[in-house]
Design brief:
The complex is a heterodimer. By secondary structure, chain A is of the alpha+beta class. Chain A has helices spanning about 5, 10-15, 45-60, 115-135, 165-180, 275-290, 305-315, 320-325, 340-345, 440-445, 495-500; strands spanning about 30, 65-80, 85-100, 105-110, 150-155, 185-205, 205-225, 230-235, 255-260, 265-270, 290-295, 295-305, 355-360, 380-385, 390, 410, 420, 425-430, 445-450, 455-460, 465-470, 470-475, 480-485, 490-495, 500-505, 510-520, 525-535, 535-545. In chain A, about 20% of the residues lie in helices and about 35% in strands. Chain B contains eleven helices and 19 strands. Chain B has helices at about 5-20, 75-90, 115-120, 125-140, 200-215, 230-235, 245-250, 255-260, 320-330, 350-355, 405-410; strands spanning about 25-40, 45-60, 65-70, 145-160, 165-180, 185-195, 225-230, 285, 305-310, 315, 340, 355-370, 375-390, 390-395, 400-405, 415, 420, 425, 430-440. In chain B, the strands form four sheets. Chain B has a six-stranded antiparallel beta sheet. In chain B, a hairpin with a 2-residue loop joins strand 9 and strand 10 (about 315). Classes of the chains: A alpha+beta, B alpha+beta. Chains A and B meet through helix 2, strand 1, strand 4, helix 4 and strand 8 of A and strand 1, strand 2, strand 3, helix 2 and helix 4 of B. Chain A: It comes from Hymenobacter tibetensis. Chain A: Keywords: Hydrolase, Metalloprotease, Protease.
Chain lengths: ~550, ~450
């Protein structure tokens, strides 16, 4: 690899006029992109460093300690039209140490990754725990966890995105921009995000876990403007962020899934054709300028997986987080309607068609890891089975609160600087078991709307009332797509919505949607998570018209 | 090492510039330290400490530029950092949006952005304050979840064109949600300060606990258009997007000129100078305001000064990058740090007294854009929503979803109250007619 290949365009970063604010992305310091190719620190060295922290914490009075030594690499390539706006390469390296002392959690982090630096941070963590214990009543109860010794896990990527010359990344984004402009866009912004988390975990349970995690997200936004009327509309990329390497950007015909006839929507599975999607986006965004404004009322909705992923995320993923259920997020992200008392009543969460699984192992997903950030081996388990809530998502200090003996492996921190806490695993709707294509599903809808892509989204703090938009909306009339709609948003109550689920297409239509920046916690942290589903039908959902007039 | 003095900072920056061989070179040194504590279920759940200093060096050769950073400050590391920035700059293509570095600037002197009381906060102080909230809530038999965060920091800049800047800042923010044990009541309070001397967790806890008690067993009333009193925390949030912040975020000249903003004019151009809001709406920024003192320079070194954005309902100024200002031939104005909406003297209680029928809203939540053309946003009320009749709170009501645009909202203004600090801004409570609630939520 030649140095010029890597840094040839990076100077644009500084001449550029903005660095987009992406929560949880690029929180490290800006570096020469060649730094992103430096080998990870040898696990033997990290073990020695971790032991220094474990020993220092114990000597200071901790009864439990875990250490996370993390190297977080990020790169973002930002373009608009024919121009590179920014290329941002960041690296963040340091250690976070969490302790229990006097029965109370304490945490401190340091970028001084030396034995002395980690020992000092461990002592500070114990000092904080002891200060807090003076006002604490109950002691932390950790579910027992066996130590795994020295183990490792690596995301099964084919091509490390950081090894790809920046010029190639710029070329593909500018080519996508050109496709959009050729097809009628007024403006186009495109971005390629790449992430590598090199994480080392050690604890007093006897685990020394080395992990290498990769994520990628090519995305764009296209805008069309009608200067005469002053009207403008946009359409975002239909890509999903994935737990993959650069191979995601080599499109394969087998990974393309057509939407219903007449919709001009193409969905993508494990590879993404950004050029094709950019061209389609430009055509669709022009069509949006003249689309019919929706007549509000009840419609049967046919939701594509890229759209439905966000609905699953908000209305199932978050309410089944046990920390919310118990009140730990009450001041910020909220609590949950799905309380322990509610679950005990055995009320249907959804129709019998609704089977939702939590999975930290799913290939190519954003949430896939071998072990979580408190040393628990990951797994797959059912959350909702035939419409009934079966289980929640838990971490070690919550298991006893619901009478269980082990964690589900859902603990995560966005960086070495932040304390780990409960985050969502991949949460997915199982596809239908009977053969059913999208066209067959649409053919049975009398009055409906097909929605693709995720747009505006909002849900209350206990996850009852939500309103979702989308990227493109197509009217369904007597089994056929009849044209594009605009000003569409649907409102529902989570339980009513999932109880209106009339079934999903089969496995051949199943795809992962994903989110790079799911926010939660104080201080707020982001995590990345995927949601799989096939195209799914929901009957009789309330659709509103969002058009307004301003002076 | 986190808080370096002006002399210490500029000494490092001078040394950095002395290592430079580039046409233009600018160095920015910044650092902060602080900590946080979070509680839930009347117990501490997490807490931590943070301490960081870093240097960014930008080197330029003609229209080519490069940036490198480091967080060690010995001579060898500083020299390497400059060399790396220069190496990257030499390899870079010319930037089509290049603007030369700024020369010496005059900044407003002595804003009160730093307070020693905040910089001196210890883990024991945080534990004591959060312990106070837990004790009050235990006594009242309610459950709290709260978050206290404090930070002290500095920013220093210098370049070889003569620019020199330095400022220290501090900030403390606290928020608390109190819930009743039956799960039918919830209340919220928040406060933020440059000077921790003005902070007392107990006072804010009392407010949230009282609201929680008052909001028990809320009644459902039909969604529709209502007169609302939006408390300051409902207009600007420190945890979420918000309606007034959305409006201020939209005052970007480039987006307006390019045709993708509510401020874009049919046929081209922007709507600066037009009266788009009620004539009582005046919003300005002032980094020297004692209550919300902020940095007197922007990230690129431009001076921040008192600037009027909306005056008597008329859009007076839009912020913009230096590149776009030059290209479009418009004033070169940086985005402000914090802003102030002028108000009156009425408290929320005074406004309630003057309301025949209406809804009092404590907080809005999960606010997301629906349509950038009209700046339409959706979201929900939360943690204390009450029905007002004949000047009194009559009963709590179930939460609503709203679909509303701040543009429409600020044309339906009934009254403006006394501004208070929220998330580094001064925001008055507003009484708005015909605020659009589109559905009910069962959430408490």
């Amino acid at each position: 690899m030649k140095r010029r290949d890597f840094v040839g365009l990076t100077g644009l970063a500084t001449g550029a006029l903005f660095i987009p604010s992406i929560p949880g992305f690029g929180s490290g310091i800006e570096v020469d992109p060649l730094r992103l190719l430096d080998a990870a620190v040898d696990p033997a060295v990290k073990k020695k460093l971790a032991d220094a922290a474990l020993n220092a914490a114990k000597a200071a009075g901790a009864t439990y300690t875990d250490v996370r030594i993390g190297r977080y690499l990020n790169q973002g390539v930002f373009t608009r039209e024919k121009q590179v706006q920014n290329i941002l390469s960041t690296e963040s390296y340091g250690a976070g140490i969490r302790v229990i002392a006097n029965g109370t959690w304490g945490f401190a982090s340091t970028n001084q990754v030396t034995e002395a630096g980690l020992a000092k941070a461990a002592q500070l963590a114990v000092q904080i725990a002891k200060a807090n214990s003076k006002v604490q009543k109950a002691q932390v109860q950790l579910a027992p966890q066996k130590g795994f010794g020295e183990v490792s896990w690596k995301a099964p990527i084919q091509q490390n995105a950081f090894e790809v010359p920046i010029k190639d990344k710029v070329d593909i984004l500018l080519a996508a921009n050109a496709k959009a402009m050729e097809n009628g866009a007024s403006f186009v912004n495109s971005v390629l995000f790449q992430v590598n988390e090199q994480k080392y975990f050690a604890s007093t349970d006897g685990s020394y876990i080395d992990q290498d995690i990769h994520r990628i997200w090519p995305t764009f936004g296209v805008t069309a403007i009608d200067r005469a009327s002053g009207k403008f509309r946009s359409r975002q990329s239909l890509s999903s962020p994935m737990g993959m390497g650069y191979e995601y950007l080599t499109p394969k015909a087998a990974d393309k899934v057509a939407g219903p006839a007449g919709s001009n929507v193409i969905g993508y599975k494990n590879s993404y054709d950004i050029l094709e999607d950019a061209a389609a986006a430009a055509k669709q965004v022009k069509e949006k300028l003249t689309a019919k404004s929706v007549v509000p009322g009840k419609y049967d909705l046919v939701l594509d997986p890229h759209h439905l992923g966000l609905t699953i995320h908000e209305s199932v993923g978050h309410p089944t987080e046990l920390d919310r259920v118990l009140g730990y997020e009450a001041n910020y992200a909220g609590t949950s309607f799905a309380t322990l008392e509610w679950k005990a009543k055995n009320i249907p969460y959804g129709s019998k068609q609704v089977n939702i699984v939590a999975d930290k192992l799913q290939p190519n997903s954003l949430g896939a890891v071998g072990y979580d950030d408190e040393g628990v081996k990951t797994k797959e388990w059912d959350l909702i089975k035939e419409g009934k809530l079966i289980d929640y998502q838990k971490i070690r200090d919550q298991a006893a609160m619901v009478g269980q003996k082990e964690s589900d492996g859902c603990c995560y921190s966005q960086s070495w600087q932040d304390v780990q806490f409960q985050r969502m695993p991949n949460v997915s709707l199982r596809p239908g078991t009977a053969k059913l294509s999208v066209d067959e599903m649409v053919s049975k809808v009398d009055k409906g709307i097909y929605i693709a892509g995720n747009g505006s989204f909002s849900i209350d703090q206990q996850r009852y009332n939500f309103q979702f938009g989308g990227q493109v909306f197509y009217a369904i009339d007597k089994g056929k797509i009849t044209g594009m709609l605009e000003d569409v948003a649907y409102q529902a109550n989570t339980q009513e919505f999932w109880n209106s689920c009339a079934g999903s297409c089969d496995q051949s239509d199943y795809r992962l949607a994903g989110f790079f920046n799911d926010g939660k916690g104080q201080p707020a942290q982001s995590s990345a998570v995927s949601h799989g589903s096939a195209t799914t039908r929901f009957n009789g959902v309330n659709v509103i018209n969002t058009a307004r007039k301003i002076g | 090492m986190a808080i370096l003095s002006q002399d210490e900072s500029q000494a490092i920056l001078k040394k950095v510039l002395s290592f430079s061989t580039s046409d233009e070179c600018e160095a920015t040194l910044s650092g902060s330290n602080g900590g946080n504590v979070r509680s839930a279920r009347n117990a501490i759940s997490t807490s931590g400490a943070a301490d960081d200093v870093s240097l960014a060096v930008e080197a330029r050769f003609g229209k080519r530029s490069g940036v490198a950073t480091c967080n060690e400050f010995d001579d060898a590391t500083l020299r390497r950092c400059v060399q790396r920035a220069e190496e990257i700059a030499k390899l870079a293509p010319e930037s089509p949006e290049y603007m030369p570095l700024l020369g010496a600037q005059t900044y407003i002197a002595a804003p009160k952005s730093f307070a020693a009381s905040t910089a001196g906060i210890t883990p024991d102080f945080r534990a004591t304050q959060i312990g106070k909230t837990m004790k009050i809530c235990d006594e009242k038999k309610v459950t709290s979840a709260a978050f206290l965060n404090d930070e002290a920091g500095f920013v220093a800049k210098r370049n070889n064109k003569g620019l020199e800047a330095y400022q220290q800042y501090t900030n403390l923010s606290f928020s608390i949600t109190v819930r009743t044990p039956d799960g039918t009541g919830s209340g919220y309070a928040t406060g933020d300060y440059n000077d921790a001397a003005g902070f007392d967790a107990g006072t804010l806890t009392q407010v949230a606990a009282d609201k929680a008690a008052m909001s028990r067993n809320a009644k459902a009333i039909e969604p529709g258009k209502y007169t609302v009193i939006l408390e300051p925390a409902a207009l600007v949030a420190n945890t979420d997007a918000s309606l007034l912040a959305a409006l201020m975020n939209a005052l970007d000249a480039r987006n307006a000129d390019e045709g993708r903003s509510f401020l874009s004019k049919k046929g081209g151009g922007n709507r600066k100078g037009e009266k788009l809001f009620d004539e009582r709406v005046t919003i300005y920024s002032d980094p020297t305001n004692a209550e919300i003192a902020s940095l007197t320079f922007a990230g690129d070194g431009r001076p921040q000064k008192k600037m009027t954005w909306i005056e008597k309902g008329v859009v007076k100024n839009l912020y913009t990058s230096r590149f776009w200002a030059q290209k479009a031939g418009i004033p070169d104005i940086p985005r402000p740090g914090g802003w102030i909406m002028e108000g009156g003297t009425q408290s929320v209680q005074d406004m309630i007294k003057g309301t025949a029928k209406g809804i009092l809203v404590t907080r809005l939540w999960y606010i997301r854009p629906v349509d950038p053309q009209t700046l339409l946003y959706t979201g929900l009320t939360r943690d204390g929503t009450f029905y007002i009749e004949n000047g009194k709170i009559k009963h709590p009501v179930k939460n609503f979803r709203f679909n509303e645009s701040p543009i429409i909202m600020l044309n339906n203004l009934e009254a403006i109250g006394k501004p208070v600090r929220v998330n580094g801004n001064l925001v008055p409570p507003l009484k708005i007619r015909d605020f659009t609630f589109t559905s009910l939520s069962d959430a408490v």
